[in-house]
Amino acid sequence: MADKIKERKIDFSAIEKKWQKKWEQAKAFKAKEGNAKKFYALEMFPYPSASYLHMGHVKCYSIGDIIARYKRMKGFSVLYPMGFDAFGLPAENAAIKEKTHPRKYTENAVKNIERLMKALGLSYDWERKIDTSKPEYYKWNQWIFLKMLEKGIAYRKKAPVNWCPSCKTVLANEEVINGKCWRCDSEVKLEHFEQWFFKITDYAEELLSGLDKIEWPERVKEMQRNWIGKSQGSEVVFEINGKKWPVFTTRPDTLYGVTFVVISSQHPDLMKLVTPERKKEVEIFLRKIKSTSEKDAVDLEKEGVFTGSYAINPITNEKVPVWTGNFVVADYGSGMVMAVPAHDQRDFDFAKKYNLPIKCVVKPLDEKFDSGSLKEAYVSGGKLINSRPFTGLGHEEAKEHITIALKEKGLGKKVVNYKLRDWLVSRQRYWGTPIPVIYCPACGIVPVPEKELPVKLPEDVKFTGKGNPLLTNSKFVNVKCPGCKGSARRETDTLATFVDSSWYYLRYCDSKNAEKIFDKKKVEHWMPVDQYIGGIEHAVLHLLYARFFTKFLGDLKLVGFDEPFMRLFNQGIVHKNGQRMSKSHGNTVTAEEISNKYGIDTARLFISFVAGPDKDIEWDDHGIEGAFRFVNRFMRLLDNLGGKADRLMEHKLNKTLQIIEKSYQDFEFNKGIINFMDLVNYLSDKKVPKEILGKLVLAISPVMPHIAEEIWSKLGNKGLVIEQEWPSFNPGKIDEKLEESERAVDKTVSDIVNVLRIVKEKSGKDVEKIYLYVLPNETENYNSEMLEKRTGKKVEVYAVSDKKKYDPEGKASKARPGKPGIYVE
Ligand code: ANZ
Ligand code: ZN
Fold it and tell me: Which pLDDT tens digit goes with each residue over 433-463?
């Protein structure tokens, strides 16, 4: 086989270049707003860092390409764009290390990846390309920022922030993984700085309810729900030293079991509750836990001290001690909790450690229950005990009643809390969008006037590796206040790159607009994205931020929809040697090396065939060889053109067209490809009519676009494959019975071969002639000419009912459906 391939070596590289050029000349992938139904296919745009693309990229990008190409053939007007998430730390770090400018580094990388993507034959509309590091794009980040400032969605506050001492930047919570920086793995320190935030919490409820109307993988939706973390409960007000202090609880039914109150040791008002006698002890405690604050809060041993103050329980008027503790989160609820050690495990542990009372107020409905000697907190529901007028109520009922009683006294109400925090967007970094504000000693925070946008990122800065390079350009920093014209200082923080990726999908709809962020009509035409494709690692951050931006722009009436991505698909990962294929693992197989050896369509076919697009796969060198042999076999069908399709061939073609189409629709490309391969193998030893091969080529063209064009043109067709209509299957030509009888004939042939072998073994003689006895309704399946060809013997076929048949041993009586009787001489 290998020799044969060498003999007729096909120059895949020439084929690829030829058709890529033709596509470009024909502007075949240009998205046009027309009357046709639209389809917007989008892959998460990449960060331009890699100097090559590996098979993991091929897998990811070919998914979108297959869908885009299929939809075009189905008559949709398709928008399938690509661009680059070009700002960010790596370019800046490379600048520090390699002494190149981040601009230069990025432009090189973008150029390179664009070339590599084109070599994969991806059908992007490159005219709409976005590069987020260009002022034409980030101007609109700044514009959105100003709108958010105007609406009170962008704001500044002093906040405890995660500071990475090695990157010299503030990190968002989600960039801290187990107390370490997500990029460089250094220990993260807690510091207090003024920072810019986006008030995503204003949209918590919409972000939650919107999940119900989009078709996303359930696990992604669930991750977003957990991240938003809606919690329904009550606010209960305790009085401490004559002042009101609310706490948030999901268990107001346990109010009679409160034996102490705990305020977060990071609460800004903690010291107000500390009495002079306890001050020293509290300060010692705070110093002690500060030194351990780098550790993840969850792993912390619960610790605390008494503040000296007492809180009055609003329903019992009982006084309970107020403690401060490290296990209460400062910025959740009110940063203070009512502790019910009998029914909350954290409180139980704390009470045991410091010998605080434990009072049981809920018991299970049926079992015997010794409320006096709990080994651990009883956290389930049941019936109330020790709760005066509420004793005997079910716990759910008690929640209602107790909250109503509190409300009447003005000391409580129902509330909803969210875990979601406002989004910290400022970074003390150079390679990002400058935040368009100016600090004036007289006017305070002054927004840069809209007509002065963009605030351009100055090129002339020093990269020392310490602090923010923007501070080294005094022309940039020292400016006149737009209000009073006095001396002022420009903001040197830049925006997190997640801002850039929060709305780029809108800009693709009108990427060259210099007047406006985008034309509303164009956005309305293309949006929402019909199919979004990207990694599961973006389940929360990017996908939540993008939904938030869409909702904010909706409130500005800039868009008329409130969800950006109707369907989401998470692609599987390519592994090699058991690890994710990546530069850092040193196990990459580049698209270029595979392409040079086998052609890029072979790579695309293989990667789409080994498993469904959502499945992880292990790279396999033998597998690609097999795919290569197959592609050659497919091309050799051209050497055997002619003949007329019989009913069986028509059946097989139409059946395959049906299955391939369904596999594109269901994101199960591998199922379609297996069928396609079976059919190609079937055709390999036959005369292949042109129309049959033509339709087959069209159907597989989304997977193997270059080879499809090549065969299509060799068949003498006019026009590009990409301009053809999808070859719909004809249900009238699908006849499963044909295939059944084909299988029956195959079986019969192998039975005959067996009989011939046995006769030869037993008698040493060769058989001269074979007699076959078939059921009357099956006679047309068993054609003697065909059987003679396949067995190499003379064959006579009789219906069992045939009176004139030759049947010396009565073998006709052995015939069954699909299993004829056999007699040989
Ligand atoms: C009393 C109580 C009794 C509670 C009981 C639970 C069980 P989720 O579902 O996470 O919202 N809590 C409130 N604020 C807190 C904070 N800032 N840091 C740590 N814990 C806090 O949980 C809400 C519950 O977590 C609240 O209900 C409160 O403890 C605690 F048998 O109040 B509970
Ligand atoms: Zn001023």
Answer: 999 999 999 999 999 999 999 999 999 998 8
For residue 335, the ligand 1 atom closest to its alpha carbon is 17
In whole angstroms, what separates CA 330 from the centre of its chain?
32
Residue 127, phi-psi category: left (phi > 0), alpha (psi -120 to 50), beta (remainder): alpha
Find out whether 399 and 251 touch, Cβ atoms under 8 Å.
Answer: yes
**How far, in Å, CA of 777 to CA of 800, rounded?**
10
- Give CB contacts under 8 A, 24+ apart, made by 518-525: 520/558, 520/559, 520/560, 522/33, 523/558, 523/559, 524/559, 524/560, 525/33, 525/38
> Please, are residues 568 and 604 in contact by the beta-carbon 8 Å criterion?
no
Q: Are 422 and 197 in contact (CB under 8 A)?
A: yes
Predicted TM-score (pTM) of the model is 0.88
Identify which of 806, 737, 739 has the alpha carbon closest to the alpha carbon of residue 777. 737
Amino acid 740: pLDDT: 85
CA-nearest residue for atom 7, ligand 1, is 344
Mutate which of 329, 344, 363, 384 for ligand 1? The one with the most ligand atoms within 8 Å of its CB, which is 344
- What is the spatial distance between Cα 422 and Cα 544, in angstroms, rounded to a whole number? 12
The most confident of 638-652, 690-704, 787-801, by mean pLDDT: 690-704
Q: How far apart are CA 585 and CA 596, in angstroms?
A: 23
Specify the long-range contacts of residues 391-396, CB closer than 8 Å, at least 24 apart. Answer: 393/253, 395/253, 395/362, 396/253
Q: Are 328 and 263 in contact (CB under 8 A)?
A: yes
Secondary structure of 639-658 as H, E, C letters: HHECCCCCHHHHHHHHHHHH
Ligand 1 atom, smallest distance to 327 CA:
19
Which residue of 228, 235, 237, 249 sits with most ligand 1 atoms within 8 Å of its CB, as the best mutation to test the pocket?
Answer: 249
User: Beta strand 433-434 with 494-495: parallel, antiparallel or unpaired?
Assistant: antiparallel
pLDDT of residue 9: 78
Taking the C-alpha atoms of residue 66 and residue 61, their distance in angstroms, rounded to an integer, is 9
**Could you give phi then psi for residue 660, rounded to 5 degrees?**
-60, -45
Q: What residues are in contact with ligand 1 under a 6 Å CB criterion?
A: 231, 248-251, 254, 328-329, 332-333, 335, 337-338, 340, 343-344, 417
How far from chain centre, in Å, is Cα 595?
27
Question: How many Å lie between the centroid of ligand 2 and the Cα of residue 445?
Answer: 8
Determine contact, residues 726/74, Cβ cutoff 8 Å.
yes
Number of the ligand 1 atom closest to the C-alpha atom of 231: 11
- Segment 286-329, tens digit of pLDDT: 988 865 444 445 567 889 999 999 999 999 999 999 999 999 99
| CA distance linking residue 12 with residue 47, whole number of Å | 30
d(CA 218, CA 43): 19
CA separation for the pair 511, 525 (Å, rounded): 14
pLDDT at 117 > cutoff 60:
yes
Cis peptide before 454 (omega within 30 of 0): yes
Rounded CA-CA distance 406/651 in Å is 75
